[in-house]
Each structure stands twice: as structure tokens, then as C-alpha cells.
Amino acid sequence: MSAEQQVPIVVLKEGTTETKEKNAQHNNITAAKLVAEIVRSSLGPRGMDKMLVDTLGDVTMTVLLY
Predict the structure, then answer these.
(1) What is the pLDDT of residue 6?
(2) What is the C-alpha to C-alpha distance for residues 32 and 55, in angstroms, rounded to an integer?
(3) Is 63 helix (H, G, I), strand (E, B) or coil?
(4) 51: Cβ contacts below 8 Å, ≥ 6 apart
(5) 44: domain range?
(6) Is residue 33 part of a domain?
(7) What's the pLDDT at 12?
(8) Which residues of the chain have pLDDT under 50?
(9) Which partner from 1, 17, 19, 53 sits 20 to 30 angstroms from 26, CA to CA?
(10) What is the distance between the alpha carbons of residues 41 and 64, in angstroms, rounded to a whole number?
(11) Can you spell out the DSSP letters for 7-57?
């Protein structure tokens, strides 16, 4: 099968909806602002590491390397 004929497989939760245009743009901007707020305290000389826990309970620690 060539690359031109491959169909992407998308797995989404039951009941997932599609957002388009201005609503999608608004959601992306909101998400970016939230990420910026979360990582803000990780930056700078007094930055702090973050512990991220996913839905399975797996833990990831951020590390700031200088």
C-alpha cells in the first residue's frame, strides 16, 4: 500500500464532538494559556519541577536543565 492510499485511524471516546472555526481557535488559545500558566513556575532561577500524573496513574517528573 502506498503512502497516498493510507487512511488515518482516529480513536475517540464515545460521544466525542468536532469543533470548527472560531470555537476551535478559542479552545486552542484557552489550552495554550493553561499550559503557559502551568509551566510558568518551572522557568527562571527559582523554577520548580512538576509531577504529572496521567489517567493510568503513571508519574512523570519535569526536569529543568541549565
Answers:
(1) 85
(2) 21
(3) coil
(4) 59, 60, 61, 62
(5) 18-66
(6) yes
(7) 86
(8) none
(9) 53
(10) 11
(11) -------TT-----HHHHHHHHHHHHHHHHHHHHTTSSTT----EEE-TT-
**Residue 42, C-beta contacts closer than 8 angstroms, at least 6 positions apart:** 48, 49, 50, 62, 64
- Report the distance separating Cα 33 and Cα 38, nearest Å: 9
Q: Which amino acid is at 16?
A: T
Rounded to two decimals, the pTM is 0.52
Please check whether residue 44 lies inside any domain of the structure.
yes
Amino acid symbol at 23? N
Q: Is residue 30 part of a domain?
A: yes
CA–CA gap between residue 56 and residue 61 (Å, rounded): 15
Percent of the chain with pLDDT over 90: 33
